[in-house]
Amino acid sequence: MMCLERSWSISVTGPKLLLLITIQRTVPARLPGRKAPYTVTYDVTDQNGNAAIQVTRTVNVVDTTKPVITLLGDATVTVEVGSGYSDAGATASDNFYGDISASIIVVNPVDADVVGPYTVTYDVTDQNGNAAIQVTRTVNVVDTTKPVITLDEYLPDPTVNNTPTYSGSVADASNIVIIQFRVNSGTWTDATFTVSINPTYTFTTSILTDGLNTIEVQAQDQSGNWSDLGTDSVTVDANAPTGSLIINSGAASTTNANVTLNLSAIDIAGITGYRVANGADASGAAIVPVTTGTTNLILDVPWTLSPGIGGRTVAVQYCDVVGDWSINYTYYINLNKPSSADGDIISVSGITEDSASAITVSGLTEQSGIIQVLAFTGHNPFIPISGGSAIIAGLAILMISIRRRRSKNRGDDSVQNNTIMK
Ligand SMILES: [Ca+2]
Ligand SMILES: [Ca+2]
Ligand SMILES: [Ca+2]
Ligand SMILES: [Ca+2]
User: Which ligand is closest in space to the CA of residue 174?
Assistant: First the structure.
């Protein structure tokens, strides 16, 4: 119990007596002001019973001293947005009531999820109504962390879609204010999104060229921090391959059904295979794979023409990386009857002219597939030769021509000429 003790002395003077009366009064100071003012009274009576006129003193016990607030921690604090904020508080001391920290009124408007400066105030008043001088703390919620942007990979890759629509998201503790994309390091273009923290976004590219395209995105938060780039590469292939087919380097005919196909095709995204068939349509043939990604295919491959003789058409189609097939490219070649002796059309050991101008063809060997052998004397018609020899009575014979007729078509004839000059 704290008490405030005061002593007062008064002097009383009388004719016969001098009395010094001391009156001590204890004035409680615990609750200054509540019981104040206090009145101290002074009374005295002389020995003859004469009481003095009472004297009084008014004592006002007051408290006019303000409490003092002391800030704990720094007066200015910086915190990263999204990381939370815990105020360090303050203490308060009063001249009479001592530690009145529990009475401090703290106004803390800090939203650690929103960038900005904030002021935290601390106030306290003692029980006698003395308000402390307000103490404040400045809290700066800042964003120094760059956003993290994610670009979802476009699938399928490769694709026939040359205007792909992309989507993605951005992670950041504060508002994202810019999201942009670009194609192949071109101009940055805004994506579609709502300003917010952790937004999603979408965009559709301009028309992409066939081939490999690189898509990049970036985002900026409200504090000006740019993200690193998000990237996706996508191969666009909106066009079928183009190509050609040649047989035996462009030969019009052949006597060998085993030929060489000279394949050629281009595709900006890459050729993955081809298919070949005898006839005008290769669509039913099995695919023959080639090295994936070949953009300029030049390839010679063996092929066997349809059996028999006559005109032959071969078709080829090329396939690209997205499975697009080209049109049929065809080539027409005459397949002539191959001889049994590596291309010798016929064997004739001798052609002689006798004294009567008759021609003897001897040693004629008819070979497999030969339909007809004819001799030409310069006069129509051709004279059939059979049995390996013929005596042709002629006049002025200039030439004998032995034809091997492969088929019923005259165009399929092969000719061996033997000329005799007279
Ligand atoms: Ca006080
Ligand atoms: Ca940020
Ligand atoms: Ca990709
Ligand atoms: Ca293509």
Answer: 2
Please, which residues have CB less than 5 A from ligand 1, an ion? 63, 65, 94-96, 126, 130
Give the number of the ligand closest to the Cα of residue 213.
3
- Is the distance from CB of 320 to CB of 292 less than 8 angstroms? no
Ligand 2 centre from 173 Cα, in Å? 6
Give the pLDDT of residue 322: 87
Pairing of strands 135-142, 76-80: parallel
Cβ-Cβ contacts under 8 Å for 153 (sequence gap 6 or more) = 232
**Which two structure tokens, joined as six digits, stand for 252?**
């019009």
| Residue 159 alpha carbon to ligand 3 centre in Å | 10
Q: Do the Cβ atoms of 282 and 261 come closer than 8 Å?
A: no
How many residues are present in the chain?
422
Tokens of 24: 């001590």
Write out the two tokens for 420: 């005799």
Rounded to whole angstroms, how far apart are CA atoms 372 and 350? 18
Biggest distance spanned by C-alpha atoms of the chain: 212
| CA separation, residue 204 to residues 4, 160, 183, 192, 399 (Å) | 85, 15, 11, 9, 79
Q: Say which residue the tokens 């192949």 belong to.
A: 184
Mean pLDDT of 167-171: 98
- How buried is 388 (Cβ within 10 angstroms: 0-12 exposed, 13-18 middle, 19+ buried)? middle
**Residue 365 structure tokens:** 């060997």
Distance 235 CA to ligand 1 centre (A): 80
Specify the pairing of strand 98-99 against strand 135-142. Answer: unpaired
Question: How many CB atoms lie under 10 A from the CB of residue 76?
Answer: 11
Question: How many Cβ atoms sit within 10 Å of the Cβ of residue 277?
Answer: 20
Please report where in the chains the tokens 């690209």 appear, as a residue: 320
- Beta-bridge partners for 116: 141
User: In the prediction, which pLDDT does 273 show?
Assistant: 96
- Kindly identify the ligand whose nearest atom is closest to the C-alpha of 176: 2
3-class DSSP state of 241: coil
Under DSSP, the state recorded for 48 is T
pTM given for the model: 0.59
**Read out DSSP for 67-111?**
PEEEE-S-SEEEEETTS------EEEEETTTEE-GGG-EEE----
| Contact yes or no for 185/225 (Cβ under 8 A) | no
* Tokens at 250, concatenated: 């462009």
Distance CA 154, CA 165 (A): 8
- Centroid of chain to Cα 402: 74
Predicted confidence (pLDDT) per residue in 395-420, tens digit? 444 455 555 545 445 555 555 555 44
Spatial neighbors of 369 by CB under 8 A, at least 6 apart, are 309, 337, 406
